[in-house]
Amino acid sequence: TWGRTSRARGRSMSADTLTEVELDALVKETNFCGEEIKALFKIYQENVTQDHVLTGLSKEELQTAFGLGPLEAARLFRIFSASSELLTFHKLCRGLSAFSPNASSEEKLKASFDIFDANQDGVIDFAEMREAFVEFLEDNGMVLSPELVDEVILHTFKDFGNDNSKMISFDTFKLTVSQHPQLLSAMTISTWQLPQ
After folding, report:
1. Tens digits of per-residue pLDDT, 126-173?
2. Which phi and psi (to 5°) does residue 125 adopt?
3. Contact 61, 48 (CB under 8 A)
4. 87 DSSP β-pair partners
5. Is residue 149 exposed (0-12), middle (13-18) or buried (19+ Cβ within 10 Å)?
6. Which of 18, 47, 115, 195 has the fewest CB atoms in 10 Å of its CB?
7. % pLDDT > 70, the chain
8. How far apart are CA 110 and CA 129, in angstroms?
9. Contact between residue 99 and residue 108 where contact means Cβ atoms under 8 Å apart
């Protein structure tokens, strides 16, 4: 964590500065260049509260920092933080790395799959897809009847070739999404376009 010696990393991290050693390590571990990591660090510093400065961002701070909807922020927070209470800068960079323009298609596919696979069991089931869709609707101020939501999800499963099983494996997800490159381009952020 920031401001303490990380046992896992074996080095001290400061909440106020990003050392060259820390910067170099993050460049090696992520798909970001040094300037992008510095831009992310600036956003991190500007959004972490004094109470959390030594430990990381809360879900609400992640939401504010990146202009996310509340449910979208909660889902990404869960993935990035590995269920911790706060999101360290290191985990933030590692989580966002799959959304970098330099990330491979495989990294983007895995990250997008993980967004839907809420229980991280390696398959997206009907309930998980429905929950993600409802969260998307709520975050965007849209309302559909429960019957129409179910119809959209059933149609989505048909598009993935799963009329009966109502489960999508990563391999099936990868095959289907790879045929629609525009979906992967939506999984790309530029740190220069992030909210300031």
Report:
1. 999 999 899 889 888 999 999 999 999 998 888 888 666 689 999 999
2. -100, 175
3. yes
4. 57
5. middle
6. 195
7. 83
8. 15
9. yes
Q: Contact 146/133 with Cβ under 8 angstroms?
A: no
Compute the distance between CA of residue 158 and CA of residue 172 in angstroms, rounded to an integer.
12
Residue for token pair 């920092």 = 65
* Spatial separation of the C-alpha atoms in residues 131 and 24, rounded to whole Å: 38
Distance CA 16, CA 78 (A): 25
Q: Quick one: tokens of 183?
A: 């979906």
Task: Provide the 10 A C-beta neighbour count for residue 125.
Answer: 18
Please report, in angstroms and rounded to a whole number, the separation of the first and last CA atoms in the chain.
24
